[in-house]
Amino acid sequence: MKKAIGIDVGGTKIAAGIISETGELLKRAEVKSDPSDREKMFIRVVESVEQVLKDSTYSIGDMEGIGVGVPGKVDRDQGIAVFQNNLSWARFPVAERLREHFQVEMIVTDNDVYTAAFAEWKTACGNRDETFVYITISTGISCSIIHHGSFFRGAGFAGELGLIPVFSKTPDMKLERLEKAAAGPAIAKIAERKLNTEDLSAKDVFERHQAGALEYQTIIDELTDCWAQGLYSISCLLDPHQVVFGGSVIANNPYLLEVIKEKLKNYQIPVQQHLLSRMSISTMKQDNGVVGAGLRVFDHI
């Protein structure tokens, strides 16, 4: 059985895993990020790999290679983390540094949403005749598109769903970027605006809504309507065969999927509504980035 290391680099945590060529997560380890300094951040990445190997019966020599998912823009050919909002890795040569440290030739780098999408496509779809979209709703909002078995990347920045403008239900009904209007950090701000309260997290909002607190319904309505607007853009532009949602906001609150479907249906014309029956939430939750990063190694062998 062939194996690879997958690394999912984030602003708050770094997850590493040992992945089989069939996508099985054999071992997983997680360490806290240290985005204060580029070298400290790299040390934490190394620690995540060392930890997952320590907890297993394998060595780095048993691995076919290392796959890395990094936020933001990535130069895949050179293995460079070009730009990120939440890390201090601007122009950081992550592939070269990992190659030097672990003495592993095969290092594959990609955007973290793309690696997560690859795992979802391989396990949930894998159909090379279809258009597949993975959408993440978490601290940010983004998506990745796999068309006929290949990523659609455009000039390198395709899939930035969070930058699409939507009508937010602020008093002036202004246009706002989807990510600013309805990603994780926006949820507490919506609660503050609507309920005149502070110190509420997104988790608090969803828990209280599910507990039956009626005053939270307007917050859920605003969020899901913004998401549906963004999703309708995808429906119109790509007419995908399948959409899978991931990211902590939606993965931890799966009941939201039916609300999104209802709102999306109000925007769609009948010929577009085939998508409603092929929308789902990831069953891999927070592991899809790790698994996808590892699977990308086998894709390059």
From TrEMBL:
Q: Which UniProt keywords apply?
A: Kinase, Transferase
Query: Which Pfam family, any one, appears in the UniProt record?
Result: ROK
Checking Gene3D superfamilies in the record gives: 3.30.420.40
Which InterPro entries has this protein been placed in? Answer: ATPase_NBD (IPR043129), ROK (IPR000600)
Q: Which GO molecular function, any one, fits this protein according to its record?
A: kinase activity
Q: Which family does it belong to?
A: Belongs to the ROK (NagC/XylR) family.
In Swiss-Prot or TrEMBL terms, this protein is called Kinase
The species this protein belongs to is Sporosarcina globispora
